[in-house]
Each structure stands twice: as C-alpha cells, then as structure tokens.
Amino acid sequence: MDVIKRVSQSGAYTIGVVETHTIGEPTRIVISGYPSLSGTLLEQRAQAKAQYDHIRRRLLLEPAGHADMYGAILRPVTELTTSGDAHIGVLFCHNEGYSTMCGHATIALGRFLIDTWDESVFPRRREIRVDEDKSAAEIRLHAPCGLVVITVPVVESGQSSDPTRPVSFVNLPAFATGRDVPVHIPQPARWPRLGGRETVTVDFCYGGAFTCLVSTEQLGFGKNGLKLPIDSQAMNAATKVLREVIQADESCQQYVTHPMHKELSSLYTLIVVDKDEGRPLEKSTGVETGLCYFAAQQIDRSPTGSAVTARVAHAYAIGRRHMGQPWTYHSLVSNSVGGQGGFVGTPVEEVSDLYDTKSMLGTPVRVKVEGYAYYVGSHTFVAEKEDPFVEGGFLFDALTYHGNDK
Ligand SMILES: O=C(O)[C@H]1NCC[C@@H]1O
C-alpha cells in the first residue's frame, strides 16, 4: 500500500472502488477520486462520456479490468437529490459506454449504501430510515432512467445490510413494445446458423432500458431451449449480427423508442430466451433461463435486472402473467456455476396514466426485482502518466474475435 501511496503522491490519478458481485456479475463501485460533474444526471452522464471516458476505460477494460467488467459511479448531487426525491444518484458504465439502468448494480448498491457511513461517499446516509416491521430500509436511487426504489434488509437496527435476505428494487414503469416482430436479415450468409432464412422473429420490451428477446430456435440453435454446452462463438456472432441489424433497421426503431425521453431510446440488451408462452397461466410461479448480450458483446453473468423488469412487463402485457405473480429468472452463466436463486421478478402495480401508451402492448407496470449481492473486496487504482494505457485500456476480445467477422 505504501508503494501505491507513493505513486499517487507523485502525480498518478487515484480512484478508490468497492467491488461486489450480484449472482456472479461484478460491480466496481467508484467511491473516491472521480472528478466532479455538474448539471442534471443526464448532463453529468454526457460530461462523463465527453471528458472522463478514459477513467471508465482505465477501470473497466484491460489491464485493470476485463471485457465483462461493470461499473457504478456514485453521484451525490443530482436534480432529484436536490429536490429530496432521491437520496443519491448513479451512473452505470460497461465495456462500451454508459447505460440508463442496471438491476444487478442496483442490488449491489442497495447493500453498499446501507453499509457505508462515510459522508463523503453518501452524504444523505443518516436520512435512511428503517422499517422495524420488515427490518428493512428504503433507498431512493436516481438512475439515468429515473427514480428506482431499493429495499434493503438490515440488521443491528439498520447499521448494516443483511446478506441472508434478498435486496429488492421497484423499477420505473416497464412496458412491452413488440411481440413476434419479424426482423429482416439483409445478409443471412453472415449468420450460418440461419440456414438461409432471411427473417428472425423477436419481442421488444422496456425496463429502464430497451431489450430484445429472441428464442434459441429463432437464432438457429434448435428447439431444445437454452442449455449448456452452447457453441459460444456461433452464438456471439449471431447475437452480434442481430443487434447490429436491429440498430440499423429504420422499421425496428419504433420498438426501441421511449414515449417521453429521447436519451432512453435505443436497444441495450439482447436476451436469448426459453419462451414461456406454452406454459399454463394459472401456475403460481415459474422459472426461465436467459443469456444476455449487451454493450460490446459483454455477457451478463446475472439474470439482468433491467431485462427481468422488461420481461415481466412483456409477459404481463401479453396475458402470460398475473399481477403479483412471482417468476424466477436465471442466467445461463450464473445458474451453471452455482449462482444463488436467480432474480425473482413480480408485477406489482399497473401504471396507466403516465405515458402515451400508443406504442405499447397492454398497460405499463411497475415490477419488483429481488436478488442477492456480495462484497468481493476493494481497490485503489492508480494511473501513471508514463503508462501507455493511462488514457484507458483495451478489449482483447475486440482485437481477436469481434474484429474478424466483419
Ligand atoms: O442487471 C442489469 O440490468 C444489467 N447487468 C449488466 C447489464 C445490465 O445493465
């Protein structure tokens, strides 16, 4: 530690982080050293992108991180913290840029924001009240997509979080925008598993960020659902082409356009799913598995909280889910390496008066998502000016695989 202290005293920039994982998906929570940002949360996000992106690249990419690392930059002052609606704000970041919502990081932040008493990290920590009945505390988090309410189980009268019970959050109103939408694949030869097919049928939904759901069968991986082993190179190539086609195809934009906010209008995640539509609706609960690709083909180890929100809203909109009916979502990754319990997603309230619902199937709903997160450690990162990667790292995957299939 003495060495790192000396290096930082000699002018290297220094960033402090706490490391967590949520069912296997990491969150590098930035707690010190990030430059100050100003304006609304979305303006701060734009500033982080324009002026300080080297810090994201330095923290998340190699050699300090890796292609599947994820980050959360705490923002104590935002328009919602100033008005008192939120306790704290956050910017989420990944291997390509900055997202609008992240469920796995929200669950991890729930624990961390209860456990930290450092006012330079969380100035409003002392305002967090404990509901003695539920032995839980509520934190209002300002995410780029809006206000997310986190419920954190606590012990010692709220002094610290309880890792034996799940953290939950209730997301912004979520909705479905498309069911069985045919997407035209202009060069099917780039995607051998299609076997010459020119159309792939997908669903679209929103849970703080837009997600596209595609079945293994539509992707060309057979009718047996999502099971290991998979041909990961072929699945990576297929999902990459599909995401690029959707992003470029004018006719798909209506499915990823938010009714109120331009900044929230783009496709974020693509989830390879086992469809549940054949299952009986009256079942009290059920389980699904998915595999999430996002950003520069990053793979979420967790079941993806924003997409679980969106998937519940989609199931509700098409009449496959009742209000209050819990459903468990696993990630193919964490489920196969002993991840604990998946995320449980439950529609908890219809919201009909908030949005112009023309572009939606059915009624928007608020969804509760529950899951577990754990601490992994903490780091002090330094970047020396002599380091060739001082301005940010690299993605080895991008140099090898992603570069070659164009
Ligand atoms: O849980 C989530 O919502 C996210 N995990 C990584 C990608 C998404 O932001």
Automatic annotation (TrEMBL):
Lineage: superkingdom: Eukaryota
EC number: 4.2.1.77
Example of a GO MF term: trans-L-3-hydroxyproline dehydratase activity
Pfam families per the UniProt record, alphabetical: Pro_racemase
Known catalytic reactions: trans-3-hydroxy-L-proline = 1-pyrroline-2-carboxylate + H2O
Family the entry assigns: Belongs to the proline racemase family.
Name the UniProt record assigns to this protein: trans-L-3-hydroxyproline dehydratase
Source organism per UniProt: Lophiostoma macrostomum CBS 122681
